[in-house]
Amino acid sequence: MDILTEAIRWFGFGVSVVPVKPKSKVAALRWLEYTRRLPTPDEIARWFGRPLFSNYGVICGKRHGQPGYLVVVDFDILDNGISWLLSMDVPTYTVATARGLHAYFFTDEPAPSVHFNGGDLKASGYVLGVSSVHSSGWVYQVLTDAPILNIRSIREVLPDLPEPEPQPKPTTILSNPKPLDVWESVNCQQPNLIEAIKRRFVILDFLPDAQKTDPSGRWYIARCPLHDDHNPSMWVDAERGLCGCYAGCNGGKPLDVVNLAAAIWNVDNRTAIERLRQML
User: Fold this and answer.
1) Of residues 178 and 143, which shows the higher confidence score?
2) Which of 1, 13, 46, 245 is the most buried (most CB within 10 A)?
């Protein structure tokens, strides 16, 4: 399937797609920007108009310029997903993955990104689109070529979906934010999960205005998101995956991607890890 055509189709639905590295699930650019806007036609043509990227991610969540949300039901085992699909009155667009399947829905109500018995509900982050190639060599294939079903709530098709864990209410980050224990044994908590998070997210994902400061592409400078920064004061070491603020935010200590997410969201590291897990 022609990926450029698919990217244009998703654009028409108000859904962003982003290029992903070959045989990988890792985005090839700072993709979080495209949760806030659609890629431009020029960007889509540049990414997919020639065989530059064979994989792409379809971003779940709020649609742009259209009402509703894109939600994907991700079954770990193909047979379980097919049995569930057969129990539905109306089919929806479905893609066979390396292990199971992705069933796509447009919903009127937002949905949580949660794990359920047999899979995950993807209401944020992105999933690999059809024709993408898994690290195993599996090519994502259309399983049910039906229109994407539009429903009021995802609970209409997953009534036993567990409730998400309550999240702290976001607070406005002030010029002198509440100090966080940024070295709260992050790398000792669920090491496999931390490794997966750091493979998927990099610091530059959270700093869309970052600019290179050396030809090697290791060092960047960006406006610090932790204070009202008019002159870029956050340095980024892309090679080591660390950043810090020259103005002294968080005591001037270096931050990795989990620490930075926690500081931006004004939550502790455990909560940031869970939010990032839901976006994987």
Assistant:
1) 143
2) 245
Look up tokens 């890792």; give the residue.
Answer: 26
- Here the tokens at position 175 are 């010029």
* 0.90 exceeded by pTM: no
At 58, list the tokens.
């379809």
Q: What pLDDT is stored for residue 250 in this prediction?
A: 80
CB of 230 within 8 A of CB of 159? no
pLDDT band at residue 190 using 50, 70 and 90 as cut-offs: low
Instruction: Please give the helix or strand (H or E) that residue 127 lies within, else none.
Output: strand 126-128
CA 87 to CA 160: how far, in whole Å?
14
**Cα separation, 189 vs 68, whole angstroms:** 35
Q: How many CB atoms lie within 10 A of CB 167?
A: 13
- pLDDT tens digits for range 109-119: 999 888 888 89
DSSP label of 18: E
Region 169-194: what's the mean pLDDT?
48
Give the per-residue pLDDT at 178: 40
Can you give the pLDDT at residue 165? 58
> What string of DSSP letters covers 229-248?
-SS--EEEETTTTEEEETT-
Domains of the chain, residue spans: 3-156, 186-278
Q: Under 8 Å CB-to-CB from 273, ≥6 apart: which residues? A: 186, 189, 190, 193, 194, 197, 258
AA identity, residue 97: T
Distance CA 272, CA 266 (A): 9
Task: Using alpha carbons, select from 177, 195, 209, 178 the residue that is nearest to residue 241.
Answer: 195
The domain covering 186-278 belongs, at the CATH homologous superfamily level, to: Zinc finger, CHC2-typedomain (3.90.580.10)
Nearest alpha-carbon partner for 157 in 241, 224, 88: 88
CATH architecture of 3-156: 2-Layer Sandwich (3.30)
